[in-house]
Amino acid sequence: MSLFGIDRLLADPDLRRPLEGQRIALLAHPASVTKDLTHSIDALFAAGLKVSAVFGPQHGVRGDLQDNMMESPDFTDPTYGMPVFSLYGEVRRPTGQSMGTFDTILIDLQDLGCRIYTYVTTLLYVLEAAAEHGKAVWVLDRPNPAGRPVEGLILRSGWESFVGAAEIPMRHGLTLGELGAWFIDRFKLDVDYRVIEMADWQPEGPGFGWPQERVWINPSPNAANVNMARAYAGTVMLEGTTLSEGRGTTRPLELFGAPDIDAGKVIAQMHELAPSWLEGCKLREIWFEPTFHKHVKQLCSGVFIHAEGPLYDHTYFKPWRLQALGFKAIRNLYPDYELWRDFPYEYEFGKLAIDVINGSTLLREWVDDINATPDDLDSLTLPDERSWDEQRQAFLRY
């Protein structure tokens, strides 16, 4: 069985020894559990460690808040009486007051392997605060459920945001422990950093990133399964559009649609434009009616992305290109379709959400250019992907 960082820390007294006598903070969420599904907070207390504070990322320690820009408050843990600090409330970065509550912070977050998933940015902000305050950071490493493939445009300078910490492609192919080391190198941070590595994680083995013997627990409310984790590097772009990403259904971020499109025609157009971008998965025409969020109580024609079971081929699946192709198909079929949603996205004002998500205007401009072809997007993206793949090699641990 694969052992995650928390499992190895609990099983090996030698790994825990440097923490003895220290005040320990834990950055965690609902998926921060051991192999037997004990929450890491409880497991660390049971192991005799002095946990003096807990930090929660977006959606909260409890994982109770559904949508973007829904903030979590600070509170006192009712079981252990320690402070719980929100890093998605009044602040995004740890304050000096909260940094004073511990000596070493353990980061035990399940990531999705996508730049826009905000736990990536929270990792960087904690590393920067730790460097400033002289604190140690340990990442209790967990799998990247999207595996090692790299895809998407690299964020351009000046487009940094809470959903874009640095010059990373949409699908980065690293674990949080590996990405933390890249951040330290990129920003030249002087911080006491350690990764408690996983044992027997096989990113190219069965599960292609997610060990099949491990239970999946939502790291955020809409991350319900591994299919979503695989598709997310593409479907997250739907948050910047007028299309539904399936919030208000039981399978959010695994589908897209709207009342005023014909999904069958969209799928056919996608196959006509770039069939190679649709390999490794199966697209299925569906109907759905969101109970909340976009197009609430309206019947939507939609496309479901199946990146699972015998239909899935990890080598060929390209979620970012697939979703970009969906936009292109809609633009071709409905030239005047109001595709781009104009609203503040993650507190970024004066920029279109789709551009904040992609870290530049390049994807949107490609979609809207009636003459632009799939080869044109590849010519922009392939150099970015090759560059990142070279950069990351020095930080791979598995």
Topology, element by element:
Elements: H1 5-11, H2 13-16, E1 24-27, H3 40-46, E2 51-56, E3 75-76, E4 83-86, H4 96-99, E5 104-107, H5 119-133, E6 136-140, E7 151-154, E8 169-171, H6 176-186, E9 192-196, H7 226-235, E10 255-258, H8 263-273, E11 282-288, E12 300-306, H9 319-333, H10 353-358, H11 362-368, H12 374-392
Parallel strand pairs: 1-2, 1-5, 2-4, 5-6, 6-9
Antiparallel strand pairs: 3-4, 7-8, 10-12, 11-12
What kind of sheet is the major sheet? 7 strands, mixed
Give the strand order of the largest sheet, numbering strands 1, 2, ... along the chain. 3-4-2-1-5-6-9
Tell me the series of helices and strands, N- to C-terminal.
HHEHEEEHEHEEEHEHEHEEHHHH
Number of strands: 12
- Could you estimate the helical fraction of the residues in percent? 25-40%
Which structural class should the secondary elements be placed in?
alpha/beta
Number of helices: 12
Q: How big is the Rg?
A: 21 Å
Catalogue the unreliable spans: none
**General shape:** globular
Q: State the end-to-end distance.
A: 16 Å
**Mean pLDDT score:** 95
Which band does the percent of strand residues land in?
5-15%
